[in-house]
Amino acid sequence: MQRMPKIERENLTGDLAAFFDAVTGLLGRVPNFYRTISHAPWYAMLLLPFNASVQRQWAGSRMTGRIKEMVVIKTSHVNGCQYCYAHNTALGKAAGITDDEVVEISSEDFHQSQTLSPGEKLAVRWAEAVTLNKAAADDELYGQMKDVFSDAEIVELTMVSAMFNMINRLNDSLRVPVEDADEINLIKRSLNMDPAKVQAYVSWVAENWPEASSERFAAMNAEAEGAASWAKEAAE
Fold first, then answer.
1. How far apart are CA 233 and CA 175, in angstroms?
2. Given the DSSP bridges, would you call strands 6-7 and 228-229 parallel, antiparallel or unpaired?
């Protein structure tokens, strides 16, 4: 059972409502993850552009959505995060990952796959090592990564896995409930990130960021608290 009520869009006004609209624009919907972490709205607002740009495929990223989602799926499966696994198997399908490949990525025998490329198998292996905190000591694996990927590509793949280790733990620790399939599938429309949307969002945040002593920080925190409500089935 979820541990805290979710922030509801219909209860929001002003900047927090605009933030939820930006989440939809960048991620295809406002998932329960953001409806939960928005109890700390300023943190959620700053996480959004990083989350979107690290995970999605776009002109500034060297890696495709397909290989990024393989990394996310493996990371989330190793951690046992049902929430992230459900959302990213859906996004993975939008990126061209088949049901059979999801099963292969999730298994311990992924290196025997006949459909994953050598580079994809290596990225999945690296995600597993990062998640189990074994990458630092595995010079052989890192050497293999260097043979296939550039330094920048290794940084991107590592950042994807590391970010989802954090997101996995947030979702699990707070027991964020998984949405139904129709809502989850809305993620598919966010595979390709539009850099102009990130530019517009970051500019909006910068232009509207309060002064250091502003009471607006406390006001938005209070609005978030007031906008939270339990779903009927969760309260029963």
1. 15
2. antiparallel
Question: Where exactly are the structural domains of the chain?
Answer: 1-56+193-236, 63-191
Q: 160 exposed, middle or buried (CB, 10 Å; 0-12, 13-18, 19+)?
A: buried
CATH code of the region 63-191: 1.20.1290.10
Q: What is the distance between the alpha carbons of residues 129 and 219, in angstroms, rounded to a whole number?
A: 42
Instruction: Kindly state the percentage of the chain with pLDDT values over 90.
Output: 92
Q: Do the beta carbons of residue 126 and residue 135 sit within 8 Å?
A: yes
Tokens linked to 110: 């992924």
The whole-model pTM stands at 0.94
pLDDT tens-place string over residues 21-48: 999 999 999 999 999 999 999 999 999 9
Residue 231 confidence (pLDDT): 62
Residue with tokens 């939809």: 24
